[in-house]
Fold this sequence. Notes:
This protein has 134 residues and is of the alpha+beta class. It contains three helices and eight strands; from the N terminus they run E-H-E-E-E-H-E-E-H-E-E. Helix content is 16%, strand content 49%. Strand 5 (67-77) and strand 6 (82-94) form a beta hairpin.
Amino acid sequence: MKLDSAGLQVLTREECLHLLSLTPIGRIVFTDRALPTVQPVNYHLDGEDIVIRTAAGSKLAAATRNAVVAFEADQIDVGIRKGWSVTAVGHARAVTESSEVERLAALPLVRWAPGGQHHFIVIQAEQVSGRRII
Protein backbone atom coordinates (compact mmCIF):
# COMPACT_ATOMS: atom_id res chain seq x y z
CA MET A 1 0.00 0.00 0.00
CA LYS A 2 1.41 3.36 -1.06
CA LEU A 3 0.89 6.37 1.22
CA ASP A 4 1.23 10.05 0.35
CA SER A 5 3.06 12.62 2.51
CA ALA A 6 -0.11 13.19 4.60
CA GLY A 7 -0.48 9.47 5.37
CA LEU A 8 -3.40 8.92 2.98
CA GLN A 9 -3.52 5.77 0.85
CA VAL A 10 -2.83 6.54 -2.81
CA LEU A 11 -5.35 4.70 -4.99
CA THR A 12 -4.61 3.08 -8.34
CA ARG A 13 -6.54 4.05 -11.46
CA GLU A 14 -8.50 0.79 -11.23
CA GLU A 15 -9.41 1.44 -7.56
CA CYS A 16 -10.48 4.99 -8.44
CA LEU A 17 -12.73 3.83 -11.28
CA HIS A 18 -14.27 1.17 -9.05
CA LEU A 19 -15.06 3.76 -6.37
CA LEU A 20 -16.55 6.11 -8.98
CA SER A 21 -18.93 3.31 -9.95
CA LEU A 22 -20.27 3.09 -6.37
CA THR A 23 -21.78 6.55 -5.82
CA PRO A 24 -24.33 8.47 -7.93
CA ILE A 25 -23.38 12.04 -6.95
CA GLY A 26 -20.25 14.00 -7.80
CA ARG A 27 -19.10 17.51 -8.60
CA ILE A 28 -18.05 18.84 -11.96
CA VAL A 29 -15.62 21.76 -12.17
CA PHE A 30 -15.84 23.85 -15.33
CA THR A 31 -15.27 27.42 -16.48
CA ASP A 32 -18.15 29.87 -16.59
CA ARG A 33 -17.36 33.39 -17.83
CA ALA A 34 -13.64 32.83 -17.18
CA LEU A 35 -14.22 31.75 -13.57
CA PRO A 36 -14.06 28.25 -12.07
CA THR A 37 -17.49 26.86 -11.22
CA VAL A 38 -18.39 23.75 -9.23
CA GLN A 39 -21.76 22.09 -9.67
CA PRO A 40 -23.08 18.94 -8.01
CA VAL A 41 -24.42 16.42 -10.52
CA ASN A 42 -25.69 12.89 -10.61
CA TYR A 43 -23.74 10.66 -12.96
CA HIS A 44 -23.07 7.14 -14.14
CA LEU A 45 -19.70 5.57 -14.90
CA ASP A 46 -19.84 3.98 -18.35
CA GLY A 47 -16.59 2.02 -18.71
CA GLU A 48 -14.07 4.79 -18.00
CA ASP A 49 -16.37 7.60 -19.13
CA ILE A 50 -18.38 9.75 -16.74
CA VAL A 51 -21.88 10.37 -18.11
CA ILE A 52 -23.98 13.33 -16.94
CA ARG A 53 -27.54 14.03 -18.00
CA THR A 54 -28.69 17.66 -18.10
CA ALA A 55 -30.97 20.05 -19.95
CA ALA A 56 -29.74 21.05 -23.40
CA GLY A 57 -29.91 24.79 -22.67
CA SER A 58 -28.27 24.61 -19.26
CA LYS A 59 -25.18 26.57 -18.28
CA LEU A 60 -23.43 23.25 -17.67
CA ALA A 61 -24.23 21.97 -21.16
CA ALA A 62 -22.95 25.15 -22.79
CA ALA A 63 -19.81 25.45 -20.70
CA THR A 64 -18.58 21.88 -21.07
CA ARG A 65 -18.69 21.48 -24.84
CA ASN A 66 -15.22 20.35 -25.88
CA ALA A 67 -13.70 21.76 -22.69
CA VAL A 68 -11.28 20.27 -20.20
CA VAL A 69 -13.11 19.74 -16.92
CA ALA A 70 -12.48 18.17 -13.55
CA PHE A 71 -14.83 15.79 -11.80
CA GLU A 72 -14.75 14.76 -8.15
CA ALA A 73 -16.69 12.22 -6.13
CA ASP A 74 -16.20 11.09 -2.59
CA GLN A 75 -17.66 9.18 0.29
CA ILE A 76 -16.66 10.33 3.76
CA ASP A 77 -17.88 9.14 7.14
CA VAL A 78 -17.06 12.03 9.46
CA GLY A 79 -17.98 10.06 12.58
CA ILE A 80 -15.38 7.34 12.08
CA ARG A 81 -13.01 9.49 9.99
CA LYS A 82 -12.83 7.13 7.03
CA GLY A 83 -13.53 7.62 3.38
CA TRP A 84 -12.18 8.27 -0.06
CA SER A 85 -12.01 10.99 -2.70
CA VAL A 86 -11.43 10.53 -6.44
CA THR A 87 -10.73 13.21 -9.04
CA ALA A 88 -10.84 12.77 -12.81
CA VAL A 89 -9.72 15.31 -15.40
CA GLY A 90 -10.54 15.08 -19.08
CA HIS A 91 -12.31 16.47 -22.10
CA ALA A 92 -16.08 16.84 -21.93
CA ARG A 93 -18.19 16.46 -25.02
CA ALA A 94 -21.83 16.84 -25.85
CA VAL A 95 -23.40 13.69 -27.23
CA THR A 96 -25.15 14.42 -30.52
CA GLU A 97 -25.28 11.10 -32.39
CA SER A 98 -28.77 9.63 -32.00
CA SER A 99 -27.57 6.04 -31.53
CA GLU A 100 -25.28 7.10 -28.68
CA VAL A 101 -28.03 9.23 -27.08
CA GLU A 102 -30.31 6.19 -27.22
CA ARG A 103 -27.66 3.96 -25.63
CA LEU A 104 -26.92 6.47 -22.86
CA ALA A 105 -30.62 7.00 -22.18
CA ALA A 106 -30.83 3.30 -21.29
CA LEU A 107 -28.14 3.59 -18.60
CA PRO A 108 -29.28 3.52 -14.96
CA LEU A 109 -28.73 7.28 -14.69
CA VAL A 110 -31.57 8.50 -12.52
CA ARG A 111 -32.46 12.16 -12.95
CA TRP A 112 -32.71 14.02 -9.64
CA ALA A 113 -33.40 17.55 -10.88
CA PRO A 114 -36.81 18.41 -12.33
CA GLY A 115 -37.31 19.28 -15.97
CA GLY A 116 -36.39 17.77 -19.29
CA GLN A 117 -32.90 16.41 -19.13
CA HIS A 118 -32.36 14.95 -22.56
CA HIS A 119 -28.80 16.17 -23.12
CA PHE A 120 -25.81 13.99 -22.30
CA ILE A 121 -22.30 15.09 -21.47
CA VAL A 122 -19.51 12.52 -21.51
CA ILE A 123 -16.23 13.16 -19.72
CA GLN A 124 -13.33 11.02 -20.87
CA ALA A 125 -11.40 10.25 -17.67
CA GLU A 126 -7.90 10.94 -18.98
CA GLN A 127 -6.23 11.55 -15.60
CA VAL A 128 -7.60 9.84 -12.49
CA SER A 129 -6.28 10.07 -8.96
CA GLY A 130 -7.62 9.29 -5.55
CA ARG A 131 -6.89 9.01 -1.86
CA ARG A 132 -8.38 6.96 0.94
CA ILE A 133 -8.40 7.96 4.61
CA ILE A 134 -7.36 4.88 6.55
